[in-house]
Amino acid sequence: MLAEDYRNPDSLPSGAVLVVGSGQTGCQLAEELHEAGRQVFLSCGRTMWSPRRLDGHDVVWWMAKSGWFERLAGSLPAPAVRLVANPAMTGHHGGRDLNLRTLHAMGVELVGHFIGADADRIYFADDLAAGADFGDARLRDFWKFVERHCEEAGWPAPDFDWPEPLRLANRTELDLDRSGITSVVWTSGYRPDYGWVHIPVFDDMGFPVQADGATSVPGLYFCGVHWMRKHKSPILYGVGEDAEVVAQHIVEHRS
């Protein structure tokens, strides 16, 4: 089952559930299914995580205040970074931490990324530690960014107790009968799909080739694209700013 088709734990057959993908959706569904009494296995990839709150402020406040959301598309080290998942967290129960460590602590079994299956078994890479380390490293990138901003603004940096590296004995295969898995929910993310736009203005990853929303085709513009101009471009916090830029370009170039 794809994540978009999932509704609630009762919509799945009774039995254990494998969730494939450890971004926001995967972690949130794993938590929901566990709280509903299901045995849950989470196949983990490489995803940043973040504490929900720092020094009494929601982490999104820090992202906005520090300029994290203002980072320009040109600052990306590679185009593929546009597909990196959002930090794992949740607004459930008023908003709290949700990541591989919290899921492990509540009883969700973590395994590496999915690599295949046959009639009897599901197979995973032995890379759970590497995926967790990736998430920790991306959090440190964000943390250094916030610290630089606090130093420039003359603020004290928020306190945070860094956890030890996540090191668990993880299985690389699961027997379907013995594990009791009756459902698999795929939460492995999406790529852009502009198949309905029959104009060759897309790169090899499916993103529109544009500058400030304008393409090489007169009159064809985009808005809401990941990293169109800034990190905040695809979210409500930023799409309005981009829409103003696009609208101004249209006004200035009307024939």
Structure overview:
- The longest helix is centred in the middle third of the chain and has 26 residues, at 128-153.
- The chain starts with 15 loop residues before the first strand and ends with a helix.
- A 4-stranded parallel beta sheet has the order 5-2-1-9.
- With 255 residues, the chain is of the alpha/beta class.
- The protein is built from 6 helices and 9 strands; from the N terminus they run E-H-E-E-E-H-H-E-E-E-H-E-H-E-H.
**Biggest beta-sheet profile:** 4 strands, parallel
* Proportion of residues in helical segments: 25-40%
Measured by DSSP, the beta-strand proportion falls in 5-15%
Q: Describe the strand arrangement of the main beta sheet, using strand numbers.
A: 5-2-1-9
CATH class of one domain: Alpha Beta
Number of strands: 9
* Alpha carbon gap, first and last residue: 49 Å
What is the fold-level CATH name, i.e. the topology of one domain? Answer: FAD/NAD(P)-binding domain
The backbone outline, from C-alpha atoms, is globular
